[in-house]
Amino acid sequence: MRVKQNPTIETAEAYFNQIFSEQSDFQSKELLMGGALFKLFYFESLVDLNLVQDFILKPLLLRPQDGIRQVVSILDYAETDHWEEAVQALLYGKVVLYQNGESKLYLLGVDLKKERSINIPINERVLRGANEAFIENLDTNINLMRKLINSTEFVVKTYTIGRLSRTKVAVMYIKSAATTAIVTELERRLASIDIDYVEAPGFVDELIREKKFSLFPQLLITERPDRARSYLMEGKVVIGTAGSPDVIIMPVTFWSFLQSPDDYQVSWLIGTFFRLLRICCLFVTIGLPALYVAVSAFNPQLLPINFVNTLQSSLKYVTFPPVLEALSMMFMLEILREATIRLASPVGQTIGVVGGIVIGTVVVQANLVSNTIVIVTALTGLASFVLPSYEMSSAVRLLSYPALLLSALFGLFGLAFFFMMLCIHLCQMTTMGLPYFTPPFSLTDTKDTLFRVPIWRLLKRPIETISSNRTRLRNPRSWKRP
């Protein structure tokens, strides 16, 4: 609704009081300066009163005859003739200044800045690399990214999602590296979200993902600006939201969740070893308890005779069958994990260590489970912690339960059937129209999936990006003499 021609102070005050009559922190101040009547509207909990005093009131008192645009020295300055825009400006922490008789409102940005300082990453600690992490302020996060990417090719587009929360969302990408079709599709999906409020990044993940019921994460979440920059350089898109210290990276493949920033800070041989270790730990997390049940209950002849004798002796006085052993210990591991996360840090560490030792010792001495399943469960838990992505680690831990049940019913055939169905599911998945489980067997793709080849061999961007500019390195070792 537009502001009518030559309205009065009473008209403006009546309009805002009608909307904010129940708000205790909504304030309006009437000022008479140089014969002109002004009215200030603001939320005292959202504005910096010192800025209002220094950059709005004092200049108006000193130069009351000049126009507001010439007097007020604030960069965040706007004018509007719509009441709705003024209401939104008030909710974002701006002061609305109205001069009696004018048909426009002045929106002055003097919002109060309250945010925590930039700290070290908490959930993605690495041995080398930058020690900066995103915070809850979106403008600060964009500032961190712009300091890392000093290029005109770096594009930031902002959107507002949520009917009630009006959450600010930023889409960031490198124009020359990102695929235009992917950026357009992402913007279409974000624009189609119609929801009251957005709790990011979880809400955004579920609202734009393609496979709604898949356990596997389809968007990569990180709190590290340097990691976000590395994916931007590969042609990915980064999504940041106000109120969240994490950003979303897309589109990504299955192999992206097995990569760590540490891989690129050490020798390529060491990085390759760590990456292969993570792949092995993924299979251990999913299949080791199931393999224990299949071998001990169905196919003990596959093991060496000495190992079979040891296994049978440990199971001789155990009360429960192997499948119940494995399920009970895996549930106990999940309980300890959740207790360690939810409690305070010192108490959580104590419960994790003492609880594991006490429970493991007591259940074995009581002949409820065998020594072997305690070792299997401990190895499974340790292997899940090796995976650098919390979302992927949680997914593979849950997948170990159906694998365990199929092994308990059909032995090794059930375990093989489970992995076959898992591969089929991964091959059917897509993210933003791109294959999720891109086979890493071509010469180009395997350089940065199963292995981490030397940096000077990574001449091309990943093929799933489908960028018009796939060249990443040009003559990287030109210093070397022929």
Characterise the protein shown here:
It is a single chain. By secondary structure, the chain is α+β, with helices and mostly antiparallel strands. The chain has three domains: 9-109, no CATH class; 138-252, no CATH class; 267-435, no CATH class. It is built from 15 helices and twelve strands. α9 (268-297) runs antiparallel to α13.
Topology:
Elements: H1 9-20, E1 26-33, E2 36-43, H2 49-62, H3 68-71, E3 77-80, H4 83-91, E4 94-99, E5 105-109, H5 138-148, E6 154-161, E7 167-174, H6 180-191, H7 202-208, E8 220-222, H8 225-233, E9 237-241, E10 247-250, H9 268-297, H10 305-315, H11 322-342, H12 345-365, H13 371-386, H14 390-410, H15 412-428, E11 430-431, E12 434-435
Antiparallel strand pairs: 1-2, 2-4, 3-5, 4-5, 6-7, 7-9, 8-10, 9-10, 11-12
Largest sheet, strands/sense/barrel? 5 strands, antiparallel
Number of strands: 12
Form type? elongated
Count up the helices: 15
Rounded to the nearest angstrom, the radius of gyration is: 30 Å
Strand content: 5-15%
Distance between the termini: 73 Å
How much is the average pLDDT?
82
Derived structural class:
alpha+beta
Order of helices and strands: HEEHHEHEEHEEHHEHEEHHHHHHHEE
- How helix-rich are the residues, as a percent range? 40-55%
Low-confidence stretches: none
Number of domains: 3
With strands numbered from the N-terminus, the spatial order across the biggest sheet is 1-2-4-5-3
Keywords: Membrane, Transmembrane, Transmembrane helix
Protein name: Spore gernimation protein GerA
Family: Belongs to the GerABKA family.
Transmembrane segments: 276-298, 318-336, 343-362, 368-387, 399-422
